[in-house]
Amino acid sequence: MKYLLHTYGCQMNVRDAEGVAACLEAAGHLPAVDEADADVIVVNTCSVRGKAEEKALGKLGLLCAGKRLAPHRLVGVMGCMAQRRGAELLKKIPKLDFVAGTRQQQSIPEILARLVAGERGLVRLDDAAAVPRVPSAHLTGPVSAFVTVLLGCNRRCAYCVVPDVRGAEYSRPAAEIFDEVRQLVASGVREVTLLGQSVMNYGRSNPVWEGVRASSAGFREDFPRLLEAVSAMPGIRRIRFTSGHPSGITDELVRAMATLPHICPHLHLPVQSGSDRILGLMRRGYTAAQYLDAVARLRTAIPEFALTTDIIVGFPTETEADFQATRHLMEGAAFDNAFVFKYSPRPGTPAAAQCDDVPAAEKARRNQVLLDDQDTRGLRLNEACVGHTLEVLAEGVSLRNEERWSGRTPGNKIVAFEPPPSIAAGDLVAVRITRAGPQTLVGEVAGEGCRPIQQRL
Ligand code: SAH
Ligand code: SF4
Ligand code: F3S
């Protein structure tokens, strides 16, 4: 059969979709070029905000309506919304063929086989008691790959649906992760991003080190140990990990980032708010001062450290003063980039029991103010890169301008540049920055090949 996957949501979902694709291809299925060409279409969904669910529902509605013209085409839903709403989706979308939860990637080929045999309306949700099976095969090209290391989330921030849909934390055995990374590197991958919701909690939920040697750098905490082992793998050039939580910024983590080879000097460390009162209501487990202290320790140890974040505006009871505290914190933390979200009440979360009392127009205003602030700040920080030569991992033709290529610096800044004739995806090139925008940099290649070069930002 020919399959097509539509993915919404975060990197975790992107990786899950790739895992499903790899499982389907191992079972003999082939990728479709477009919807018309597909025998089965799976929508991999996100539940984090109401809008994300609406989008996925809209897409599923259209796909199922399209069955009038192609009655044999199968349509399924997987991922976070599928896990949250389960069998209810079959009632809501009558022609839907299956619903699969967030830990069911390896079940999809079997579900398809059953559908082909005539079964309909299959629902396969996660079993909290089962040990998750995580596909380790990849399909991606030569540059970078996501590797899931920690499933689920135990934190239960008051607004967040992720722990409900992704289940309790489960850390994959270290040996399994090493095998996956080794295979990726053997297939030419240069950069891996280790994924988890609070990725520094790796190893805290279940034993992971069976049969694996202890740290030679003296790390006792599991996540720094994992970083040490991955960074020692021959052929790896860049290691990233996401997302972080300030509680994970331990002295060992800082030492790992500062001393191990290939660890990129960048963290995505969602802060959500700069107001201690709101952080308390959100149950984030830190104050603004503690967050800034974690950032200061990282910046002291890692000179070129780059920092990005997530913010929620309009959490219940957020006042103008709370909002101004967020603006203040964002300036103090000097974020290189920020994703700003309007609070969306999620059914079943503690915050949803509170009145969603910040009007939509006010959320939109606060959202825009923070985006404008960030543009100004991003431009200022990026302009400081002009004249410097940065190491860029070439990814391919730029999406914005076909004559250029783009890639990322170790600090995760996007750089567009005119490609030398011999360029190939996966090359590490030295690029001298000539222009800066709020989100991107433009530069000229100052050297080719894979020589490690001094990174200045
Ligand atoms: N595990 C990650 C976040 C995953 S969700 C972390 O904690 O770092 C990605 C982002 O969506 C969050 O950081 C938060 O900013 C936003 N988000 C989560 N729930 C939300 C909600 N109910 N309304 C608006 N934004 C939300
Ligand atoms: Fe959600 Fe908080 Fe877990 Fe992140 S850490 S996934 S925001 S509950
Ligand atoms: Fe990611 Fe959305 Fe699920 S943010 S974890 S795909 S709810």
Q: Tell me what the CATH architecture of the largest domain is.
A: Alpha-Beta Horseshoe
Query: Terminal Cα separation, in Å?
Result: 48 Å
Could you name the CATH topology of the largest domain? pyruvate-formate lyase- activating enzyme
Q: Report helical residue fraction.
A: 25-40%
SS summary, helix count: 13
How many domains, in number, for the residues?
A: 3
Structural class: alpha/beta
If you average the pLDDT, what whole number results?
A: 95
Beta-sheet strand percentage?
A: 15-25%
Distinct compounds present: S-adenosyl-L-homocysteine, iron/sulfur cluster, FE3-S4 cluster
Helices and strands, with pairings:
Layout: E1 2-7, H1 11-26, E2 30-31, E3 40-45, H2 50-65, E4 74-79, H3 80-85, H4 88-92, E5 98-100, H5 108-116, E6 122-124, E7 144-148, E8 150-151, H6 162-166, E9 170-171, H7 174-186, E10 191-195, H8 222-231, E11 238-242, H9 251-259, E12 266-268, H10 276-282, H11 288-301, E13 306-313, H12 320-333, E14 337-342, H13 360-383, E15 389-397, E16 405-408, E17 414-417, E18 428-436, E19 440-447
Parallel strand pairs: 1-2, 1-3, 3-4, 4-5, 5-6, 7-10, 10-11, 12-13, 13-14, 17-19
Antiparallel strand pairs: 8-9, 15-16, 15-18, 16-17, 18-19
Helix pairs in contact: 8-9, 12-13
S-adenosyl-L-homocysteine binds at residues 48-49, 159-160, 162, 197, 243, 270, 272, 310, 312, 341, 343-344, 346.
